[in-house]
Design a protein that fits this description.
By secondary structure, this protein is of the alpha/beta class. The chain has 13 helices and 7 strands.
Length: 373
């Protein structure tokens, strides 16, 4: 006889956790345990109480939504030997007529749906993988701040009639031109200098984070996959590291289309009967990798060739990986050219190339052996 399992639904917040329980045996209604503090000491105390009122053969299985609190609860419970499930909030079924939402109802809903097997679990990265992900996201934030600072300075100069005569902005020549700009009022001169300082500091921050990614990469257990992905055109070290840190083990996807779906790169669809309507990409997955792949896809607008820089990145890689990379380049460069010739909008073409590029990344990851940790 199969032992009974108690589903423990947790609605976790910064300072509180709402707890309900649901038995898998029979058709019992969920029971409300109560609200506890958001720290792990309070959770351990609640677990001891839950175990004390249950038989020895009864098992506890925990479930909560992924959110800003991260995976602290998951790792804390799994280290103690408990089963814990982290679910995707966007994939939780919701009743259209339900207009009442609170912490207790959310926890009850989680327990019921987990008991029924209706929840979609999220991939929980290893702590080392999450650390590299935090580093790549910090660099992405630094790039956004740098871009914002440049836009602010450009708008300020344009308001006061200063236009850079050169062809390309933010080069050393452009920065020298900025140092020669003088404003009519001291307050405006200070404003100009502060904008320039913000750009300089932002550029330095991006450089430091990029250097740290390259420095820590060889020590990471996923480094072989990152190196292999760099055989692809446009997939530089930062793009490869971001992709692997965000996706994790690509072998968990049985087919490349599953990876494309995870990244939100497949077209949306709203069809009924004879009416078939397809729209833009779903954008339902990991936006960090999606943005990195869209950036990498721009490189396929040029004819297929293995440059000196790309050849250096491919040194030491297996022949099978290099063959996949060349096959990807021939196909994607040709597809980019054909789609543009048909009059397709460039952004749509780049997105289509990024989608297929994800499939080639999946194929290369299959060829690499990752050392067990």
């Amino acid at each position: 006889m199969e032992h009974n399992i108690t589903i423990v639904g947790l609605d976790a917040h910064k300072n509180s956790i709402e707890i309900v329980t649901a038995e898998t045996a029979g058709n019992q209604e969920v029971r409300h345990y109560g609200k506890i503090g958001g720290d792990m000491t309070s959770l351990d105390k609640a677990i001891r109480k839950l175990r004390s009122v249950r038989s020895n053969g009864e098992e506890l299985r925990f479930v909560y939504e992924a959110g800003p609190c991260g995976y602290e609860i998951y790792r804390h419970l799994t280290k103690q030997g408990f089963q814990c499930v982290v679910v995707a909030p966007s994939m939780i079924p919701k009743k259209s007529g339900n207009r009442i939402k609170n912490d207790r109802r959310d926890a009850e809903n989680l327990a019921r749906l987990e008991r029924a097997g209706e929840l979609t679990r999220v991939y929980v990265p290893r702590e080392e993988d999450e650390a590299m992900r935090d580093l790549t996201r910090a660099r992405e934030d630094a790039v956004k701040a740098q871009r914002a600072a440049r836009q602010l300075l450009g708008a300020f100069l344009l308001r006061h009639g200063h236009r850079y005569p050169g062809k390309q902005s933010w080069t050393p020549a452009h920065m020298r031109w900025l140092s020669d700009v003088t404003m009519p009022h001291p307050a405006q001169q200070i404003t100009l200098q502060e904008y320039i300082h913000a750009i300089t500091e932002g550029t330095g921050r991006v450089t430091r984070l990029t250097d740290q990614i390259q420095k820590l990469l060889p020590e990471w257990h996923m480094a072989p996959v990152v190196k292999a992905l760099q055989a692809l055109r446009g997939v530089a070290p930062v793009v490869a590291t971001t992709s692997v840190a965000e996706i994790g083990d690509m072998n968990r996807f049985e087919r490349p289309k599953q990876l494309m779906t995870y990244l939100g790169l497949i077209p949306s669809e709203y069809s009924s009967g004879e009416s078939i309507k397809r729209g833009g990409i779903t954008k339902a997955g990991n936006g960090h990798v999606r943005r990195a792949l869209v950036e990498a896809a721009q490189a396929y607008s040029f004819p297929a060739r293995v440059s000196r820089h790309l050849l250096k990145r491919q040194e030491g890689l297996p022949q099978s990986v290099r063959e996949i990379a060349w096959k990807a380049q021939v196909r994607l460069c040709g597809r980019f050219r054909r789609l543009m010739a048909r009059g397709k909008q460039r952004n749509k073409v780049v997105t289509a190339i990024a989608r297929e590029l994800a499939g080639f990344m999946w194929a290369i990851a299959k060829e690499v052996q990752v050392p067990s940790v």
